[in-house]
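Sample A.
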Amino acid sequence: MMAEERQQPNLLVTGTPGTGKTSLCSLLADATGLRHINVGELVKDKRLYDGWDPNLECYILDEDLVCDELEETMSKGGNIVDYHSCEFFPERWFDAIIVLQTDNSVLYERLSNRGYTAEKLQNNIECEIFQVLLEEARESYSHDIIKTLPSNTIEDMSSNVELLKNWVQSRMAN
């Protein structure tokens, strides 16, 4: 089913770990009634992985299994997908790609508070510095559906939820 045929939009919220994806998605789901799909949790719960990366301390997800698992849900619409990567998701799934961006000092503090190892911390800070996820989105999706949003403060979070809630409501009204 194409985006024009869905009754409710699908959004992808992406960004470096620690930029506030899960918090934003939870708040936006509460505000709109859309379904929040945390891909990291889905991968763990449904065992959609090929193994464990001990250096980065994360599962190595199986992209094909993830896409197969989500295909029917995404075709129905009404989803907010939360994941730190985006290039493997089919473009047809999404009406908007939201890339959250956080200042390095804020991100460093958030990730340090999570207890990230030095290697994992460095990888994620470099990812944000070089805007890896924004570039990944630009290479994978139409530029007119990509929106970058700052995610440094509670005020940013509130304004992002309000902006996206209004966008979702306008899409559902059409």
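Sample B, a different protein:
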Amino acid sequence: MKDVLIQYMKRFTDLSDDECARLTADVPIATFPKGTILLHQGDVPTKCYFVLSGCIRQYKVDEDGNEHTVDFITEEQSITILTKHHTDGRSPYSLTCLEECCLVVGELSTEHEQYEKNPVLEAMTRDMMQEDMGTMRDAFASFMSSTPEERYQTLMEKRPDLVHRVPQYQLASYLGITPESLSRIKKRATRHLRIVE
């Protein structure tokens, strides 16, 4: 599984395979069963994750008890809930494994210590985070300016696997629509595809 991590790292560094292997030799990897809650909304985050396999759902529950899916984190994606801008440091989100997940698990408390030991790791992590932030900004801007049909089409173009990996009501929440609306959009898309064919 570390091969997945090494190949991902090589997108952000000129290190050789052997150097990447040495850098990841002590990286903790753990497997979590489907349904594992990695972080509860309201807790202070202590860990960060990189997905080698599996799918994590990031969501929040509002004051009325309604769940709102914010993101799905899958292979070769990382997740760190940043809370330094919150006075109490508590997470506004929960993280749950929707599938059995094999994850690199990092301790936020030892982040600076790791960077001091491996300066190249800090530069690499910064580049990874910049790419993630850019992708998130673009996705948010696209989401805000698009119709539900356009959001579904973008999903089918960029992350079609999610349609088969996550419950439809969570997918609908992620797209900002009701499950009934999602069902109608999928039917229209299927009819359109048949006409085009």
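Observation for Sample B: The domain at 2-114 is CATH 2.60.120.10 (Jelly Rolls).
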